[in-house]
Amino acid sequence: MNWLNSEAFTLFGQHIIWSDMTGNILGLITLALGWRRSLWTWPVQFLSGLVLFAAFYGHLTGSAGKQVVVMAVALYGWWQWRRTRNRSGDGQITPRFASWRERAAMIAAAGAGTVAVALLFQAYPSLSWDPWPDAYIFVGTIVAMYAQAKGMVEFWIAWLLVDLVGVPLNFANGYAFSGFVYVIYGALVLWGMRDWWLRSRKAARPTLEGAPA
């Protein structure tokens, strides 16, 4: 798998490696499929994690380990969507807003998780190149994927919060391709959030007996 860490092309003076390009492109496809509420969201997400795991394994054990967690959550998401997709009229999952209790739980988990992971990264410097931002992005990604698996509209907001740190951080560290991809992520997130929000309102609207569907 050494080819994954070889240079694909140069963009604005930045050397783009195959793993960075492939993983980010698969990430974009995952987000677009999530917007469409397609079950294929999760296999593509799993494949993205697998590509990055193969690229990192052997020399960046911390990054490889994080991809294992991402792949595990992708499997959970696939199971969850497959189990609930037939509850809507179009054969896909029905988006909904999280309850206040669910929101509080996710915020608490994100906060506590970020602190715990950052401290772990600080204790073992080989696991991360920048402990606190890296922990924030990693934990935020897991929370977003969990909310997506549950069909919560808030998962788009979680992705936006990850992007707010991910975009400047990638540019600052010389990962121009990843930075541009995160900008596209932001646009997809806004469109996807609008679509899920409208669908959640439609799903929540009561249908009067005898009224046309």
Automatic annotation (TrEMBL):
Main localization (coarse) = membrane
- Give the UniProt entry's GO cellular component terms: plasma membrane
Q: How does it sit in the membrane?
A: Multi-pass membrane protein
Q: What superkingdom heads the lineage?
A: Bacteria
Where are the membrane-spanning stretches? 12-33, 64-81, 104-124, 136-162, 174-193
Where can this protein be found?
Cell membrane
Q: Name one Pfam family in it.
A: NMN_transporter
GO terms assigned for molecular function: nicotinamide riboside transmembrane transporter activity
Q: Which UniProt keyword terms apply here?
A: Cell membrane, Membrane, Transmembrane, Transmembrane helix, Transport
Membership in a protein family: Belongs to the nicotinamide ribonucleoside (NR) uptake permease (TC 4.B.1) family.
The record ties this protein, via PANTHER family, to: NICOTINAMIDE RIBOSIDE TRANSPORTER PNUC
Which protein is depicted?
A: Membrane protein
